Amino acid sequence: MSPVGSEISQLPLPGPDHEAAIPPSADTRSGVFSWYPASTSTERRTFWICYAGHLLDAMDIQFYSFAIPSILLALSLTNGQAGQIASAALIASAIGGWAAGIAADRIGRVRTLQITIAWFALFSLLSSFAQGYSSLFFTRSLLGFGFGGETAVSAILMAEMIAPAARGRAVGLVQSAWATGSIATAICSAAAFTVFPLQTGWRVLFGVGVAPALLILAIRRSMPEPAIYLRSRAIRGKAANPLLIFSRAHLRTTIATTLVATGILGGNFAFNVWLPTFLRNVRHLSVFGTGGYLIVLYVGALLGYITGAYLTDRIGRKLNFAVFALCAVAILEIYTQLPISDGAMLVLGFPLGFFSSGILAGIGSFFSELYPTAIRGSGQAFAFNGGRALGALFPALVGIFANRLPLGTVIGTIGIAPYVLMLFALLVLPETRGQPLDRIDPHHTQ
After folding, report:
1. Tell me: the pLDDT tens digits for 86-109?
2. Neighbours of 220 (CB within 10 A)
3. Which fold, 3-11+39-445?
4. Could you give the CA distance from residue 292 to residue 302 in angstroms, rounded to a whole number?
5. Dihedral, CA atoms, 58, 59, 63, 64, nearest 10 degrees?
6. How distant, in Å, are the alpha carbons of 122, 395, 397 from that of 86?
7. What is the mean pLDDT of the chain?
């Protein structure tokens, strides 16, 4: 065993009572919402604050996707430049996300969540004042630095609050807020570009992105640190070295989880970043029509998240990922490669959103279960945001190749590769359904 690996494995284990709020009867056969009535008031407040953070995070990020046609016109950008800005925000989120994960292990989950929300709200507002490629690239990159942290830290918070039998459902439902945020984004975008001229509507959208800052007040008042985190810090007396995730005991897990995240997020990004542009410029839908199609897609995504949250507890983390990935690939190819009617596109938007977004519901619980508490923030944040950074290359590739090939062909071709990568990476990871977070599994530490 390596010295850094032994540092974790020699820790005394916390007591078994940290997850007692959810009774054993709330097993994997229960309904997707059955854990909620049995939870404490603190857990319910934590759920809704994390849910709201994810929702507003989704809006801040996806406003850009809806604004691309407007920004291309207003700032005289090329498709390649627009793709680079999208990818820069996602790459920056990897750096910010891991930094936030390290901070979550050192200064606490709650304080870190406050900082990340304030950060991405500020830079969303500043993005609305961009005057060209360079300034927009800068502000969107710094926005990405903040939202990468919020996503990881809120997932860790919920995972550490909930009993093993219900963890997949609770964390998955928090992540379903991304789909709710997508629906809100479509509605806000349709309204903004209806009320305001095309060249200025995007500035209004980015200005709305300051709204998450209001969450800080709620977090400051009513959100305590998870008991398992406080107990771990009391035992150690100091924060663990974040580089432990690269020790012999954890390196394989870190590499594999990063590749899983790359596959899931890369496939999602390759399609969703360019979807509004595909509908507008290839299918020649109006802004209002584009919003209608996307709302169908996002309603499918919302139900996909909820279903994925249930299935990750019911059939296991790995099988759930595999089923959703294979179905997402099949629907994506039909949607982008076949000469289907607008009506067929509307209908297929539902299963496309269901599978391509619903697959994300299992990430938070799965990654939380693969690392011990002392390095959970660092490990989960690095894997998720490292995958986000690598996955961010796919929207840039779509933008580059779309300058020479039809956009639909490029999306459909590039969108397959990430899911194949994810399926191979899953082979080296264990199934973790129902694993208590306070138990250090020898498989991961020795």
Report:
1. 878 877 877 888 888 888 888 888
2. 11
3. Growth Hormone; Chain: A; (1.20.1250)
4. 15
5. -30
6. 18, 7, 11
7. 79
